[in-house]
Batch of 4 targets.
Target 1
Amino acid sequence: MFKVPTATRSSFSRRQQPYTATSRARYHSERRAGETPKAAQPSQSDRGSGVSLSIISFSCGTVDSVALTTLTFNCDGLVGRYVNIFLPGHDKVLTLCEVQIFTSKLPTGKNVALGRSVTQSSTDPGAGAEGAIDGNSDSDFKHGSCARTRKSKHPWWRVDLNESYNVSDVRITNRADCCSDQLQGAEIRIGDSLENNGNSNRLCGIVDSVSGTTLTFNCGGIVGRYVNIVIPGPDKILTLCEVEIFGSELPYLHGKGNLALGASPTQSSTDEGAAAERAIDGNSDNDFRHGSCARTRKSKDPWWRVDLNETYRISDIRITNRADCCSDQLQGAEIRIGDSLKYEGNFNRLCGIVESVSWTTLTFYCGRIVGRYVNIVIPGPDKTLTLCEVEIFGSELPYLHGKGRLNFPKRLSFNTAFSRRCCTRFVSEHEPQCVFMKSLRHSVHRLSFTSSGDHMLIKTSHTPNDYTPDEEHHPAIRVLT
C-alpha cells in the first residue's frame, strides 16, 4: 500500500526515528511494566534480519534488527520509480505484512537555471561553474559534466536567473563516483542581494545527508534572482554535477506594473510615523528600522487599505512582511478585495489568509477578484499590523474600443414595479431609485452597478429591436438620448 502525505519536506534537516511513534510508545510501555517487549521475543521474525531495501540502484537501508515489529527507514529523498525489498542469500523466505512508502512528487515545470549566467568562488581546472547547469546530470566527475571549486574557505556557486522568481524547488545532483561527503553542510540560499556574494540571502535548506545522489529541497516560493550554494567552513571543496531550479515568474500586469504604486492608502491608525504610504513606496526593505514599513498601533482589528482609484480584476497580491523581528504579528491577516467601503472595506470578498509567516515574501493568487479597494486586516484584539510592501497585480475591466462609456446622468426610463427586488440605486436628475430597463435604443455592451461589493454585468442585444426582455425575469435598463 502506498500512502503519500500531503505535505512535503522543506529540506533534509529532520531525521526520522528508527521506528514509528506507535511502536516506540508500545515498546516503552512494555518496558515500564517490567515485561519483555513482545517484538523482542525470539520468533520466526528473525528470518527478516539482513533484508535490504533499495530504490533503483541505491540502497536506502538494511534491516539489522527485528526487535521491533514496525521498522521505519529514512531514505533521505532518494529518487526512483521502483522500490525493492530483498533478502540476499540462499534458502530465504521474505514475509512482509505491510509496506508503506511516503514520498513527495518531483518538482514539475521548467528548469529556470538552464542558459543562465553562473559563477563560483574559484574553479578547479576543467570544472567551470557552467557544468552545473548544462542539462547533464551525469554524477561521475571524470565524465566532465560537474562544476568544482578549489579547496578554500566558504566555497560557493551562484546562478543569476536574470530576474526574480518564486522558487519552489531546487534539485542538486551530487558527485557519486567518490567524495560525495564533500557536499555535507552545503546551504542553498535565494534572494535579490549580492551582499556577501549572495551568501547571506534567505536560506532554503541545508544538505545534512548525502546518502542519495539527487537531493531535492522545497523552498516554499522564496522570491529571488540569485540562487547560491555555499559550504561554510575552512578547507572545503564544492562539487555540483547538476543544479535544477524550478519556480514561476512573478505576477505582473502588461503595461501597468504594480497597481498599488501611486494609489491612495490609509490605515486604521499610525504608529510612530509608520504611515500607510510606506507599504506602497516601491521599497521592499523588510527591516522596520530602515523606515520603509507601515504599521498600526496595537488595537482591535487593525487594517490597511489602498484605493486603486478604479476597479480592476485582481490576479495576485504580494506582501513583504517584517523580518527584523515580530514577523508572527502578521499571522491570521486577511486580504479582501471589493468596491464597498462598508465596515471600511473589511468585509469585501476574501482573497486569502496569512496562515504561515515562515517566509518574508508572501504571494496570494486571488483568482481575478474584481474590486477597487484592497484591504489587509487582522481580526482580533490587541493586534499590530505591519506591512513593509504590498504589491497588487491585475488587469483593467473590459471596455468597448472606440466608444468609451456612456456618461450619466441621462434621461432614464424607470420601471418601479420591481423596486422590492432591486438592490441597486442610481443617481441621476431624478430622485435615487431602482433602475431597470424594458427596451433599448442604444446597443449597450456593458453596464456596471456596484452594490455591497458585487458587480452586475449586463450585456444587451446588438439588434435592440429584436430584444424583448421578459419583465418578470429579465428586467432591463432603457437609455434615452
Target 2
Amino acid sequence: MVYRTVPRLGLVVCVAGFIGIFTVYKLCTSIESEFVETYKAYKRPGSYRGIAGADIYADYKNGTPCRSVTDIVFLKIHKCSSTTVQNLLLRFGEKHDLTFVLPPHANYLGDPQNTSFDRKYMIEYPDVKYNILCHHTRFNEENIVNLMPSDSVYITILRDPVTMYESLFTYAGFAQYSKIFGGDPVTNLAQYFNRSVEYSNHLLRSARPIS
C-alpha cells in the first residue's frame, strides 16, 4: 500500500509543480506583452503621455529621448528621509561635475527660525551657474527663482504630519528640553500633549536649530 501511494504522490507533486511553473510563465509573458504594447502606444506621436508605467522607461517628446535633469531645487523637510535624498543628489552632482548652492557652514541656508532663503546666506562664486540647491532653507520663491536656472525641477517630500511629529519629538529631544524625564517616547509624548501650552512656551524659550 505504501509503495503504491509514494509514486502517486510524486506524480501529483510533479503535475502541480508543472502547472505552477506554466502559470508563472504565462503571467510574466502577459505582463511583458502588455508593457511592450503600452510603450509602443506611448511612443506614437499624439498618444496620451499619462499611460501608467510608460514613463518609467522613457519620456519621449517629439520623437527624441528625454534628457537628464541637472538643475534641481530640493526643499529639504525634516524627518521625511530628506537627508537620504540629499546625499543622493550630492553624489549625483559630484559625479556629473555640477555646482551646488552651499551654506558657509553647517546645513542651513539662513536662520531656519527667522529667515527665508536669500543669496546672502550662501557661498557665492563669480560667474557661476548653480545646478542643485538641496540644503535646509525656508522657501522663498522669488529669491530662488532668481538664482536657479529657469528649467530647474522643484521637488520635496511630504509625510503624514502625525508620524512626522512623533519622529521629530524624539529626534530633536523635545522631552529633554521640556524637562520631561523617565518615560518611554510614547509616554513622554502623551505627557507633552497633556500640558502642551506650558511645554510649548518652554520650548520656544530654549529653541535651537534642528540639524
Target 3
Amino acid sequence: MGNCLGNRRDSDSLLMCGDDEDGQFALGQDQPLRQEQEAWLSEVALTEGSLQGKRDTFWETAPVYEGRREIWDALRAACEATDEGDYELAQAILQGASISLPRGRLTECYDELGNRYVIPKYCISKPTNMAAANHNDDDIEEIVDSTTKLLQGPPTPTSPSRKASGSGEIRRRLPQDTGLTMVVKVRLSTLSKDTKVTVLETARVKDLKRQLATDQSVDPRKLTMLYSGRVLNNGTLLKDLEIPKGFVIQAVVM
C-alpha cells in the first residue's frame, strides 16, 4: 500500500507519497524519465510477433476511449524509444508534448490539461520470459515463396519507355511540382506553442525541417520529426501522411 505525508517548506505545501516499488516521490511534480528497464514477467510467454500485436492493439484502441490523440502518439513514440534504450529521445519527446511523469515512469503520465494516461508494461519493455520464435513457420513461407516464383516463370521484360536513356535502370517518378503550397502545424519542443509552416505540396520531411530551421533559427540536423507515434524519415512525402485538420507534427530538438 502507498502512503502520503505532508511537508511544508518555504510556505509551500508539498505532498510526498511512497509505495513499495518506487519509494518516495513528489505528487504533482514532473520527474525525469528513469533510465532503466523495469523487469517483469508475462503470464503467457510472448513471441516478438504476439508482443507487437498486443502493442498495436493497445495504441490503436486507447485514444478511442480517453485522452488526446496527439498525446497518445507522443507516448507511443516515447515508449518505442525507451524500448530501444534511447532515453534521451524519449525524454525530449515527453518534454515537447508537455507530458509529466509523477513517478518517473511511463506507466502513469499526465498531459498539461491534467488528463491521466496509463500504459501497460508490455508497451514499454519486453518481458524477461520472451518465447523463441517458431522457425517452422518461416521455413514454410520460404518454400511457398520459392514455389510461387517457379510457377510464375521469369519476370516480364521492362518496357523500353520505362528505362533511362543509355542505361538499364528504371527511372524514378518524382512528384510533379505544381507550385501549390500547404500549411503544416508543428509543435517544436523548444517553444511553448504550436507554429505553422508553409511548404510546397510536394515537400518531404527534410524540406519541412529546413523551413522550420529557417523560421525558428534551429539546426535542421538536430531535428527529429514524429507523427502518429512514429519517427518520420527524411524522404517521406508530407501529403502521404494525410494529416487530419488540427493534428500536429512534433519536432524534437536533440
Target 4
Amino acid sequence: MHASAQTCGRMPGAKIMDKRAGAAAVFQARRWLLALILLTVASSTLVRAKITNEEIVTMSEAQAVAGNIAQMPCDIEPPVQGDKVSLVLWYKEPSDLPIYSVDMRKAQGTHWQNVSLGSRALFKHAESPAKLNLEAVKESDAGLYRCRVDFKQSPTRNSKVNLTVIIPPDQLRILEEGSQSHIPYYVLGPYSEGASLNITCVATGGQ
C-alpha cells in the first residue's frame, strides 16, 4: 500500500511534464508551418525572375540610331483561344529586376517604368506585334532585353531582344583624288562628260 501511494504521488507531475512537452512540440510545429507559409507567399510574389536559355522562346534583333526611337517586339498573342494576357514584364540583362511592366488585368493596362528610363518608354500592346518603344535612345541603352508574358491560363512566355544603338559619325570629310583637303560644301566639279572621278569619304567617330 505504501509503495502504491508513492507511485500514485508521482503520476500528476509526470502528466504535467508530458503536457508541457506536448505544448512545446505543437508551438514549434506551428512556427515551422508559419515560416513555410511566409516563404511560399514571398516566392510567389517576388518579381525577380532568372531563367535559362532553354526557356527562351524567340531571340530577335533591333537597331536604332542614337537620339531616335527604338522598337523592341514582344509576342503577347495567347497560345490558346480564349486565353488572355495578365502581366507583361521587361528586363534588361544582367539584372533580374523589371524595368517596365504592364498590368493587363484592366482594360487600358496599368503601366509602370523604372526611374532609370526617364519616362522614355511606352509599351504598345495594341499593335501586332506588341512593341516596347524607347525614345531618345542613348548608347547606354544598348544591350539584351527580355520580355516576360504571363497569361491567365497558359504557361509564361519569355523572349529576348538584342538592341544595337548606332552612333552617327562626328565628322564627315569628302576628299578629291590627290588632295587631303575637304571639298567645300560637298560640291564637286565641273567635270567633262566621260571623265573619271575618284573621291574618298573619311568618317570620324561613331560606331
